[in-house]
Amino acid sequence: MNVIQESLGQINHQPVFSFTLKNDLGLEVTVINYGCIITKIMAPDQNGQFENIVLGHDTLEEYMEDSSFLGAIVGRVAGRIQGGSFELDGKTYTLAQNNHPNHLHGGMNGFNKVVWDAEKLEDGVCFSYTSKDGEEGYPGNLAMKVIYKLTNENELSIQYEAQTDQKTPVTVTNHSYFNLSGDLRRDVLNHTLTLKSDKFLELDQTFIPTGHLADVKGTPFDFTSEGLIKTGAVSEHPQNVLVGNGYDHPFVLNENHEHEVILKDLESGRTLTVETDEPAVVVYSGNSLSSEGSFRGVPSRKYLGICLETQGFPDAIHQPHFPSIVLDEGQKYSSVTKYKFGLIER
């Protein structure tokens, strides 16, 4: 196992570094301490050819200008909060409506837009950041840690830890866009997905959960058996059409740490298995990716990547029957998501 640290530059006089985690099998994961962004994952295909399997950029400036949360840690609260406000213990907190009329992924300068402290580990890197009381409108000083570790079994784990000195909502996720074809040679419509999920959260016109847990059976949201991402893109189901012809929906997980999410690209032979202790995964099929710009020379377009955002239920702060995302003073927030990179058995 090797961890290589390199300097990328500075943001507001704060040094920014990249950390490349490389295991004994040659798999590489590169992360930076700006936004805890995963910039590159080099994984082998069925012929042993190593290629990048996430959307990313080569320069720090491109990440600073990015508005797609590319590869980043998002929070304090991943997903949308209706109306950009919430109430806790009788007090109303007002947040940025950066996805009008709602609040999205922590606000204008959420976790994805700050420089984190970094500590190199033997098998990874630990990022830490204290979000001050009132930052982006949230209450309490929140001490946050994000730990990336890579194993020789081609498994990347992301561990989240946090503590607060005041009651506050917290649910954090990684927003990587995966594309298992390798170096973005194809879009993800012919990727297949398997999900251990019988229900998804129905969305309203502003992408806020209505509170209704809809059955996947008989719909394009049924991935209990392996299905194509393309299914949602061509579907006339109102929920698929609503989000731009595809998926941008939270799926309720039936199990945890039991191969609950499996993504495959049949042509390259690559697989990605995601396991988590979170109650949901938001599947976003890149429906809103801009047709402007590029990723390392590949023009941006719809469906070029797919996000698998393990997290608490979006807008849980307004939905009493959803699992709570409120962290109490002195309570420890802890969550682990693991990404196992493999190959289809032929």
From TrEMBL:
What Pfam families does its record include? Aldose_epim
Answer whether the UniProt record assigns the keyword Acetylation to this protein. no
GO BP annotations listed: galactose catabolic process via UDP-galactose, Leloir pathway; glucose metabolic process
The Swiss-Prot or TrEMBL record annotates one GO molecular function as: aldose 1-epimerase activity
In this protein, the active site sits at H175 (proton donor), E309 (proton acceptor)
Quote the EC number: 5.1.3.3
Sorted keywords for this record are: Carbohydrate metabolism, Isomerase
- Please list the reactions this protein catalyses: alpha-D-glucose = beta-D-glucose
Q: Which CDD domains match?
A: galactose_mutarotase_like
Q: Please give the pathway this protein is involved in.
A: Carbohydrate metabolism; hexose metabolism
Residues given in the record as beta-D-galactose binding sites: H175, S176, Y177, D248
Task: Specify the signal sequence span.
Answer: none
InterPro entries noted in UniProt = Aldose_1-epimerase (IPR015443), Aldose_1/G6P_1-epimerase (IPR008183), Gal_mutarotase_sf_dom (IPR011013), Galactose_mutarotase-like (IPR047215), GH-type_carb-bd (IPR014718)
Q: By its UniProt entry, which PANTHER family does this protein fall under?
A: ALDOSE-1-EPIMERASE, GALACTOSE MUTAROTASE
User: Which protein, by its recorded name, is this?
Assistant: Aldose 1-epimerase
| Species | Niallia endozanthoxylica
